[in-house]
Amino acid sequence: MTLPTPLSGVNQPLKGILLIVTATALFSSHDALSKYLSGFYPVVMVVWARYLVHTVLMAGIFLPQSGLRVLRSKRPLLQVLRAICLLGSGLFFTYGLLFIPLAENTAVNFLAPLLVAALSGPLLGETVTRGQWLAVVCGFIGVVIIIHPGGELFTPAVLLPMAAALCFSCYQILTRKLSAYDSPTTSNFFAGLFNVLVMSALVPFFWQTPTLTHGLQMLALGSLGMTAHLLLTQSFRVAAPALLAPFSYCQIVFSGILGWLLFDHTPDLASRVGIAIICASGLAAAWQQRRSRT
What we know:
12 helices; disordered N terminus; globular
């Protein structure tokens, strides 16, 4: 996700750190709940419920302020492509949760920032340093270690979180391009509404009437995602991105804890090493990007 620039004159680092750590905890809870619900209902239905609740909440917040003009985009085709990338990321990631443990699935998905660094050269015309390329290579080495041949994760299913990472990196790049034309509110609401419409056309073919408990959990799913996004956005309005970026990797830690508590899974040594390499590579790429801009 492309993050907003901190507001002029605002510098509250501790508040920013608290907000982003809370956001990562909510994202991890959202993913854990997605994994749980996907054990009872088709992934298409789970993803549809998430986008439906998310978009209804966004409409309640932003439509009274801006009306339908919030959907007016100067680059509608790019907005559609961005929405498709976001939808692909969500579907691939959630399908991956059916086969890959939560922490490992999340860690592989964190290849996205590295892929953004690699793709920003040909797609955005930005300079990609040797250090950034090295970080990308090391990140993929981390994935190979996690899915080491002969291990239980060495299956075609590992391609799902990798595809999710690729889709999300394209989504981030398109977000960066669209930031020159449309507001973040327009981009986010456009993507949410588009994906609700697409998934609403598909969900009748996968429909299973949820129980009351599961229906409430689907409501919570969308609420968790929406709240996490709002907290994440607010964190980067009160503190510098360079300070906050490392704390985004708390999501992998929270996912590991929830995977252990809820699904009785603890990453093995190879997975822990691979996760550490991916985190280190992402931090190194962010540091290299910061240096190249100073």
